[in-house]
Amino acid sequence: MAAVISSIIQWVVVPCIMLALFVYALVIASSVKGSEQKTSSWAGFWAGLVLFVVYVVSQLSLLREPDLGFSRLPGFLIVPMGLGLVIGFLFLWMVKVTVPTRLAGLITLLLSAVSTSALFTYIYINSLRVSVLYWALGTALGILFWTLDNRCSDRRIARIGVICETAPKWGDEHKHLHAVGTVSAGSVPQF
């Protein structure tokens, strides 16, 4: 049973966290407003992928066949977990500050380069696998802690550029709709 749990965590959960960061870069790049911000965010995304290719080429001598056979979880490493926690916590604050500006490209560059490089390192470089595992888990935990601390609803955190300080109450949204005027059936309120 321990081997199954270990395998699920190491080969499903952790890679999905890394892929989620990559998908978040795509979401940011495709949903920013304004032509300058959109150009900047897509340029950052593609620059991150170019940095990933540079990283792969620089690590070719360290590549080994992936060893997917773990029977147990590795011991706890506080440094990568702590760094990931701090980075994840500060990351959403950085998104809130930079996405409305042309610096959105910096966010997409970081997300695309770091997530793809981390996934590559996790799979192909055995000596760094445990550190990357705890970095990814710490980053996810830091993002979740930031979300909890800022009391954001899932619906608002998903809208790029509208990362909230406090979540509105349902009654407040409803009052806003009546104050604005008639809303057609099937329309979604914009915050």
Question: Describe it for me?
Answer:
The chain is an all-alpha fold. It contains seven helices and no strands. It has helices spanning 2-31, 35-58, 78-98, 104-124, 129-149, 154-158, 170-180. The longest helix has 30 residues, at 2-31. It is globular and about 50 Å long. The model is unreliable at 153-158 and 160-191 (pLDDT under 50).
Q: What fraction of residues sit in β-strands?
A: under 5%
In total, how many beta strands? Answer: 0
Q: Describe the largest sheet.
A: none
Helix fraction by DSSP (H/I, runs of at least 4): 55-70%
SSE map:
Elements: H1 2-31, H2 35-58, H3 78-98, H4 104-124, H5 129-149, H6 154-158, H7 170-180
Helix pairs in contact: 1-2, 1-4, 1-5, 2-4, 3-5, 4-5
In brief, what are we looking at here?
The chain has 191 residues and is an all-alpha fold.
Task: Based on the model shown, name its key terms.
single chain; about 190 residues; mainly alpha
